[in-house]
From TrEMBL:
Keyword Lyase assigned: yes
Enzyme superclass (EC): lyase
Cofactor requirement: FAD; (6R)-5,10-methylene-5,6,7,8-tetrahydrofolate
Enzyme Commission no: 4.1.99.3
A Pfam family the protein falls into: FAD_binding_7
UniProt-recorded name of the protein: Deoxyribodipyrimidine photo-lyase
Family, as annotated: Belongs to the DNA photolyase family.
Record carries keyword 4Fe-4S: no
Domain named Photolyase/cryptochrome alpha/beta: residues: 10-137
PROSITE patterns: DNA_PHOTOLYASES_1_2, PHR_CRY_ALPHA_BETA
Gene3D superfamilies: 1.25.40.80, DNA Cyclobutane Dipyrimidine Photolyase, subunit A, domain 3, HUPs
Keywords recorded for this protein, A-Z: Chromophore, FAD, Flavoprotein, Lyase
Length: 484
């Protein structure tokens, strides 16, 4: 056992995780308040929790760069290390003679296991450890039913969140960081988070600027310009009707309580924003709901929440899966969504629901296949929201859409992309199609197709499954598990 160092020069290590920001960072705030030199540390630990997919790795690299630059402007530096986090953090604490290690908790079983290991390792070294709440509006322990379990229906869940007091006010970013001892850091490039050969990240670079500063700008712009139209536009993939904050929230470049307070403040200042803000906050509530579900069901990404689905007769159709992944299904709204995803690392929420429904219902492909594809290609891929939403669409999740509700992709397109603007943007081979046919090119006459420059089956695919037949097949499969 080592005697703890309590000299004024003994630093506090702030272990950054899914909270790549300086403002409203309780662990950092407390370290700075203690007047200690601060060592800012990020550990790439791919064994703790689900390893990020390719698009999220790209985001992580940009976000760490942005964080490092913000820390540097305040006189500090960001130390990068790789390996099992509990071991790496404890070793660094010993090496640097740290008096304490601070972090913001992540309410997910594998991360909590690492936190417990670290606490034990630090205790052995006589080094203090402090965990702060950070990634949720309300801790899961605060929302339990009579049996002590989490809620599985969104509306009562959200009512309970709203009935609790407002989350604490966000904390300011430190103006200055007292630098800690000089500590060797990995080079970010050595982690190979970004693609090189081939470099497929051009579309991501064009679409996004990761980092806290950009997250704050997006939030401000959303509240100023978009929130007033949110109720009417949020389901329209052809419009910029939502906040695009999801990857920033995923990496903690903004905390949910910063979003909460900024949104509430905006609505107080301008009551016209009220309905839009309430709806927007309830979407933030879905993020919270999904994370609480993951807390209570660590196997959310692999196991059906409703076990009646365990015997579901999924089809392992590799060819159909590949057509779906590449956006070659012959259904324009589905193809547009999957191509938007490939190019930008996100997909509009309405279209996520349509493509997910198409995969699990029309193609009878296991939701886990779609979830895995999203996990690899989404910059906002989230261990709670992704599987929870897939299970919701498939009908096997919490508060799930009933399995018998099968989206008709043509009607969804006509309703939510009425002029075909979204489809024309992402499926350029259909750009000259008349609007009335853009969501159903298979019904166009040979003359209409020829004048739009389309040869079905060559320049654009025929539908890989007929909607009515696909629907019937899905309902028959559903009937099987209901019978059993
Ligand atoms: C099959 C499927 C998979 C999904 N996977 C993810 C995922 O991996 N990560 C992710 O963040 N979202 C996921 N979503 C939810 C949703 O599509 C995105 O959060 C939303 O499109 C992000 O856009 P936005 O930031 O403009 O949202 P806004 O409409 O501006 O909403 C504000 C915030 O609320 C949260 N939010 C909104 N809708 C949902 C929702 N249904 N579930 C959970 N949180 C929500 C997000 O954090 C979002 O940034 C998924 C939805 C579906 C149907």
């Amino acid at each position: 056992m080592r005697t703890p160092l309590t000299t004024p020069s003994a630093p506090v290590i702030v272990w950054f995780r899914d909270d790549l920001r300086l403002s409203d960072h309780p662990a950092l705030h407390a370290a700075v308040k203690a007047g200690a030199p601060v060592v800012c540390l990020y550990v790439l630990d791919e064994a703790a929790g689900r390893p990020p997919g390719s698009a999220a790795r790209w985001w992580l690299a940009q976000s760490l760069r942005a964080l490092g630059a913000e820390i540097a402007t305040r006189g500090g530096s960001l130390v990068l290390r790789r390996g099992p986090a509990a071991k790496v953090v404890a070793e660094l604490a010993r090496e640097s003679g740290a008096r304490a290690v601070h972090w913001n908790g992540i309410a997910q079983a594998p991360h909590q296991a690492v936190e417990r290991q670290l606490e034990a390792a630090l205790a052995k070294l006589g080094i203090d450890s402090q965990s702060f709440p950070g990634d949720l509006l309300v801790q899961p322990s605060a929302i339990r039913n009579k049996e002590g379990r989490g809620l599985r229906v969104f509306t009562p869940f959200w009512r309970r969140v709203l009935s609790l007091v407002d989350p604490p006010k966000p904390l300011p970013a430190p103006k200055q960081l007292r630098p800690g001892p000089k500590i060797a850091s990995d080079r970010l490039e050595s982690w190979k988070l970004e693609p090189t050969r081939p470099d497929w990240a051009g579309g991501l670079r064009k679409t996004w600027t990761p980092g806290e500063a950009s997250a704050r700008t997006r939030l401000r712009d959303f509240l100023k310009h978009t929130a007033r139209r949110y109720v009417g536009d949020r389901d329209r993939p052809d419009r910029e009707g939502t906040s695009s904050l999801s990857p920033h929230l995923r990496f903690g470049e903004l905390s949910p309580r910063q979003v909460w307070h900024a949104a509430r403040f905006a609505a107080d200042e301008d009551p016209v924003l009220g309905p839009g803000i309430e709806k927007f906050l309830s979407e933030l509530g879905w993020r919270e709901f999904c994370r609480h579900l993951l807390h209570d069901h660590p196997d959310l990404g692999t196991d059906n929440l409703q076990t009646s689905f365990d015997g579901f007769p999924w089809k392992g159709d590799k060819k159909a899966l590949a057509a779906w992944q590449r956006g070659h299904t012959g259904y324009p709204i589905v193809d547009a969504g999957l191509r938007e995803l490939w190019h930008t690392g996100v997909m509009h929420n309405r279209v996520r629901m349509v493509v997910a429904s198409f995969l699990v219902k029309h193609l009878l492909i296991d939701w886990r296949e779609g979830e895995a594809w999203f996990w690899d290609t989404l910059v906002d891929a989230d261990a709670g929201s992704n599987p929870a939403n897939w299970q919701w669409v498939a009908g096997c999740g919490a508060d799930a859409a009933p399995y018998f509700r099968v989206f008709n992709p043509q009607l969804q397109g006509e309703k939510f992309d009425p002029d075909g603007t979204y489809v024309r943007r992402w499926v350029p081979e259909l750009k000259d199609m008349p609007t009335k046919l853009i969501h159903r090119p298979w019904q166009a006459t040979p003359i209409e197709l020829a004048s739009a420059g389309i040869t079905l089956g060559k320049t654009y695919p025929q539908p890989i499954v007929d909607h009515a037949k696909g629907r019937e097949r899905a309902l028959a499969a559903y009937a099987k598990i209901r019978r059993s």
